[in-house]
């Protein structure tokens, strides 16, 4: 019996790179929802979003050049 879904090879491994930034962004957005008037929380979410955007933009530029 085969499975159509992808399973990670090491489920206990810590996420790295883009996946880690995505998880950080989710956590930051949950923090913003919990404290919508906290400027520091919003700034932290913006920093993570900017880092993720830069990583994804670099990834697209690299794959387009190939």
Q: Concise description?
A:
This protein has two helices and no strands. It is mainly α and 66 residues long.
Question: Radius of gyration, Cα only, in angstroms?
Answer: 16 Å
The run of helices and strands is: HH
Total beta-strand segments? 0
Q: Measure the end-to-end span.
A: 37 Å
Number of helices: 2
The percent range for strand residues is under 5%
For the largest beta-sheet, the strand count, sense and barrel status come to:
none
Which key features would you list for this structure?
about 70 residues, mainly alpha, elongated, disordered N terminus
Word description of this protein:
- The protein is an all-alpha fold.
- It is 68% helix and 0% strand.
- It has two helices and no strands.
- It has helices at residues 17-34, 39-65.
- α1 (17-34) runs antiparallel to α2.
- It is elongated and about 40 Å long.
- The relative contact order is 0.12.
- Residues 1-11 have low confidence and may be disordered.
Q: Secondary-structure map with pairings?
A:
Elements: H1 17-34, H2 39-65
Helix pairs in contact: 1-2
């Amino acid at each position: 019996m085969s499975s159509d879904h992808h399973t990670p090879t090491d489920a206990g491994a810590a996420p790295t790179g883009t996946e880690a930034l995505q998880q950080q962004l989710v956590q930051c957005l949950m923090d913003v929802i919990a404290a919508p008037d906290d400027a520091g929380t919003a700034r932290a979410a913006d920093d993570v979003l900017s880092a993720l955007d830069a990583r994804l933009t670099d990834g697209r530029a690299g794959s387009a050049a190939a």
